[in-house]
Every structure is written in C-alpha cells, then in structure tokens.
Amino acid sequence: MILTLWCRISRPPKNELIVRQLAFLFALCLGSMCLGLGITYLALTRGQGFDVLHIGPWVSAPKSGTLDIEPYTKAMMARSGQIPLGIAEGMSFSASRDSQGRPLNASCVYHISGAEPSARVWTVTLLGRDGQALGNSDHHSLTSQDLVRMSPSSFDITLASYARPLNWLALPKGGSFLIMLRLYDSSLSLSSGALRASDLPRIERESCS
Amino acid sequence: MSSTSPARTSSRFIFWGFVVLTIATATHIASVLLMPHVAPKSAYQHFATTYPAHHLFVLDPQTEHAPFDDPALLHAVCVFDLSDGPVRLRGPVAADELVTMSMQSDASDVFYSLTDRSAQQGRFDIVLLTQAQLDRAEASDNEDEPVQEQRILTPSLKGFIYIQTLMERPSSRPEAQARLSALTCAQERAH
C-alpha cells in the first residue's frame, strides 16, 4: 500500500529510480521501527506504567498482581524479572522520595514513622534503584515482628549510614536508594481507591551530611 | 534543480512523517505487548530454564533472588506444564506462620494467589488444571462427597507457582526452609 501511494505521488519510475525508492522505503521502515523500539526501551526503563497510585511518598501498581495488569507494567516486570505480589498475598509500595517530595539520598538520615499499617505482617526494605540489594548487611530489612515499639500502635525506624539505637536500617555511604513497604495479608484495599496517606508511614528527613 | 513546488514538498513531508509515526507506533505497541512472552530475563524464562518442572525448589536467598524480592521472606518455586496432566501442590501449614503463594503464567500474568488462611484443616491441597482437565475431574466427582481439594483453572498450560514464607530473622531460616520443604509439587497423570 505504501509503495502504491509512493508511486501515485512520484514521477514515473525508471529502473534506477525504483531501486532508489525501494532503498528509501527500506531505510524509512527500519528507522521507524528503531524509533518505536527506542520509545519502548525508554518507556520500560524510565517510566512507571500508567496504572500507578501515588499515596503520599509511596507508589504502587495496584493491579500488578492480577490478570488486569496494565501492559506497560507487565512488560516492565517481565523485562526485569520482577515477580509481583498476588492480590491475595498483599500489596507493595515503593518510595524514591521523602514525604516532602525530595529524592532519597543515602548521605541523609531519615525516619519512617506513623501508625502501624493494617496487615498481618509488614516489612520495610532498602534497595538500590534497580531493585537489587544494597549489600550483604542484615540491616537492610525489618519486619513488623522485629520492631521495638515505644507505643502499642506506632513505630519509628531510623535510616542512617551509621548504627542507631532501637529500629535501624543501614544506608550506604552515599547515592540514591529505594524504600519498599510490603503489607502481607492486609485488610487495606488498593482497588477501592480508599487508601489515604495517613494509612501508610511517613518518610521524614532528619539531616544530611 | 528540482521543479517541485514548496506546497508539494510540504505535503510529501507530512505524508512521510505520518508513515514514520505509524510504523514507530505499531512497533512500539507490538514490542510492549510481546515483551512478557519473549523477555529472556522474565521470571518464567529464568525458572523454566533453571529448574525441572513439577518439583518444589527452595531458593537460596544468597544466590537466587528476583529484583525487588523481599529479603525477609524465603522463596520456593515449582514450574508446571499441564500438557500431560494436572499439577498438585500439597502439604501441611503451621498455624500462624505466614505462607503466601501466587500462580503465574508463562506470559507473566498472576492468575491466582492465596495465603495460608486458605488452607483447609491445616493443609494445602491445590490442583492446577486446564478447562478440559477440570471437566474430567468434575465428571468423576462423587456427588455425595464434597470436593476436598482446591481446584484452580489456569489460563495457560505453562507457568510457575511462587511460594513465600516469613523468616522472622535471619537465624530462623531453617524453620522457614522446613515449612517450604514440607510442601510437595507433582504432576498427576490422570485425573
């Protein structure tokens, strides 16, 4: 069809002209396909997907663990090898910014605090931006069962590159990082859209070196 | 010197721009939709090429972890292929010990998930079947006896079951490993 349209708007072809036109069409198709693949690469490596919820500093793809998963999120997970939590297993959130919207920086000290999320078990994990572990330390993850609580229904976790008393997660010496919050067997529902920022912990920056 | 008028040059530019955009958009959409089926690093591709089907493997958290996996959990996987029959996962569940699992197709779709709260009488007895296998199973059911197993219809022949259990702390890994190792995953030739 493209060739027909080309012939209609071009002058009557000679043999040499036809070869040039075919070469032009081939290059055009190849270039267009490379452009399409380049957009795919950018969308899957730098995008967040379309069906994404922002709740305070936390980001979640609520349908990632269902058959209704949105195609970009599904492609991103397949490309990286990520395994989403099924909807009955729980829900996961990631944060790359604090509650004031500033990018997380490992040279700062942060506090994750607030009311306990409504879940049978919940965990907080520090990861690199690519989802890989920050190192071999045992201090990159805490579960709700590990926490030292100053009051029955609230908690405070300190994120710092040096050891802190009570609940401490170890940051690397510098660079960016992600915080993952996972609520297992939770009574909260993302699909209803009723989740509020107050249902999830805050991420407050204390100081930066 | 070209005798082409500016108006004709402009219309050609618009035409070819439209062609480029159309091909680029079609390629983009096709590549996004195909990615779950062809991605070499997808979870299914990794497990299917690393582990034999129809056996449960507890994954070593030091060497085997997917991106964004929770290090507080110990994981196990069972790759399945229903071409030759249903696959059954069964085993005991300790009271109040968190165990969750998700069933995923070879196209990266999570088609079912559950927790230990779904276990009946302290045991998992889960059968993954195709529609034809489910029809045969229902035809052979005894109407006077309630079905004890949990039957799950799969949208594709191939996929994997991903099971997780909580390690309260790193030192409790042996207990978590024992919980997962108590589960079995096997194919049933006839149902």
Structure, explained:
The complex is a heterodimer of chains A (209) and B (191). Chain A is α+β, with helices and mostly antiparallel strands and 209 residues long. In chain A, 24% of the residues lie in helices and 28% in strands. Chain A has 3 helices and 10 strands; from the N terminus they run ααββαββββββββ. Chain A has a 4-stranded antiparallel beta sheet, with no helix packed on it. In chain A, strands 8-7-4-10 form a 4-stranded mixed beta sheet, with no helix packed on it. In chain A, strand 1 and strand 2 form a beta hairpin. The longest helix of chain A is centred in the first third of the chain and has 32 residues, at 15-46. Chain A is elongated, with a radius of gyration of 24 Å. In chain A, 34% of the residues are buried. In chain B, helix 3 links the parallel strand 6 and strand 7. In chain B, the strands form 2 sheets. A 5-stranded antiparallel beta sheet of chain B has the order 1-2-8-4-5, with helices on both faces. The model of chain B has no long low-confidence stretch (mean pLDDT 89). Chain B is an alpha+beta fold. Chain B has 2 domains: 1-39; 43-187, Domain of unknown function DUF1254 (Immunoglobulin-like). In chain B, 34% of the residues are buried. Chain B is 31% helix and 28% strand. The chains are: A alpha+beta (209), B alpha+beta (191). Chains A and B meet through helix 1, helix 2, helix 3, strand 3 and strand 5 of A and helix 1, strand 4, strand 5 and strand 8 of B.
